[in-house]
Amino acid sequence: MTALLALFLQDDSPITAPVTGGTASGILEMVRNSGPIAFCVLIILLLASIYSWSIILSKWSGFSRARAQSTRFLRAFRKSGRLSEIASIADQFRPSPLVNVFTEIYDEYQRQSGGRGLPRNPLGLERAAQTAASEALTSMEKNMTWLSTIASTSTFLGLFGTVMGIIDAFHGLGASGAATLRAVAPGVSEALITTAAGILVAVPAYVGYNLFTGRLREFAARMDDFARELLNAIENAANMPVPPEMSPQPLRRDLRNDTDLDPRLR
Questions:
Q1: Secondary structure of residue 176 in the 3-state scheme
Q2: Domains of the chain: total
Q3: Which of 48, 59, 117, 178 could crosslink 183 through cysteines, CB 3.0-4.6 Å?
Q4: Is residue 160 part of a domain?
Q5: Mean pLDDT calculated for residue range 138-145
Q6: Is the dihedral of CA 72, 78, 82, 83 positive or negative?
Q7: Contact, 103 vs 135, CB < 8 A?
């Protein structure tokens, strides 16, 4: 920048050249005139931008479906009074990560007690819930590292293209011997295109990564809350007193018709 300022102060020719074409056409012209290194950097940034946007759109769609299905599944779970009914319709809400937590806890409860009474090992249910939540989060975090990588490296890659372009511009300036701003400005402007492209690629990836990270924390909290709610429901159902009409009745013998009794007790 100091060298460019010095060239500007030493340049005696007036910068009054008319602007040819619009801004878009000028940018396209600079991209066409880019050197081989800058052109390769632009191609890499274009591929990274396409890949990052595909991840952003797929995550946005998947997280939206998971949130909607989680709301529906919680509503169905709280309305139903039997776990077996929820287990029979759980596959309808499969995009929701809460379904994985419910399935793991319910299967472990069935293995321990056959679906009746208190579980023999309550800690086993808690470990099953933690395992299911971890697996669900791992699946939802797929390709998130690529967003982080693209967001953190795109600007540096664009800066690399700019530096190499400026080096090439000054090398050509020294070879031509024309130390004027008019001679060096086109090469520098072409080199700065890669920095602008790097910023345009990095900003959406960075915003998407932060947004989806917050969504993942939200899903993790909802899974923990649902696991506790489900464990409490199992415990309450196991401790619920049996209604009198469903309790086993004591065996009553008809003394008048019992022929096995002593005749004196008839």
A1: helix
A2: 1
A3: 178
A4: yes
A5: 92
A6: positive
A7: no
